[in-house]
Amino acid sequence: MRAKRRRALTLIELLVAIGVIGILIALSAPMLHDARRAAGQAVSLANLAGIGRTFEAYLGANDGLHPVALPGEQHAVTLDGNMTFSYGDRWAMAWHWAAVIRDFAPWEDHIQTWASPGSDAARRAFEEGAHFIPDYRYANSFVASPSLWTPQGAADAAENPSRYLQRVRAASVVYPSGKVMHYDHVMTYHRRKQPRLSDHMPDDPTPMLFADGHAATHLPRDAADPIENVLNVSWWKNSRLHNTPEGVFGRDY
Questions:
Q1: Which of 126, 139, 173, 231 is the most buried (most CB within 10 A)?
Q2: In this structure, is the dihedral angle defined by the CA atoms of residues 205, 209, 123 and 73, taken in order, positive or negative?
Q3: pLDDT more than 70, % of the chain
Q4: What is the distance between the alpha carbons of residues 151 and 201, in angstroms, rounded to a whole number?
Q5: What is the spatial distance between Cα 22 and Cα 26, in angstroms, rounded to a whole number?
């Protein structure tokens, strides 16, 4: 008995099958992107929560004073310690915070979680000896007197800067659940160019760490409008989260 021969697909049937597969792929791509973004966001929030625990321990060991580079200090910014930065631009603590707390939080133990998911910042620091800049920015509000971000401070600080360049105590934060301390500046897990607001802040839901230690996602555009830091000549002198009205006496959300 002869076996039945299978009928081969016609060209039209093959093209239809390819078209159906293409449609299914097109429909699933946004879902895959959303899933990847959600996973990256979850990891970033976990990283921020870890930074919160590190800062809580640092504050407990340093009389409740937030970290800041002080005159005369030098801090290593590479794993091998061959490159350092000296006190100069106080506002660069936005990324130099990792160097200042290095003796308390060894980079070998923490650096992987100070990089946004998908970022190569930690890899480059380990493999290439590159200058390490954490992807999580530290709000400038925590390195100067709250009065700097008031109308009086805006008018007076340029003439009397030392009055405003004071260290901040954790106990000074009036609204710890509403004041952002760190945020994910790059969000590499989006795998696309990061849209920015006019003040250079991300224009996407952004993982943030608040002063009370909780991490959550918010839109920077919804944060309190900034008051210009007249002592900062850099691009983030008008950025939200860094320049919260009344500094740590105020709130971002």
A1: 139
A2: positive
A3: 87
A4: 23
A5: 6
Full-model pTM: 0.85
**In a 3-state reduction of DSSP, which class is residue 85?**
strand
CA dihedral 217, 219, 223, 229 (to 10 degrees): 100
Does an H or E element contain 49, and which?
helix 11-61
Query: Which one has a higher pLDDT value, 22 or 206?
Result: 206
> Tokens 């099958």 sit at which residue?
17
Q: What pLDDT, in 10s, does the model give residues 205-215?
A: 999 999 999 99
pLDDT in tens, 95-141: 999 999 998 999 989 999 999 999 988 888 888 888 899 999 999 99
**Beta strands 136-138 and 84-86, pairing class:** unpaired
Q: How many CB atoms lie within 10 A of CB 74?
A: 11
Instruction: Compute the C-alpha angle 117/41/245, nearest 5°.
Output: 105
Give the DSSP letter of residue 240: T
Q: Are strands 74-76 and 84-86 parallel, antiparallel or unpaired?
A: antiparallel
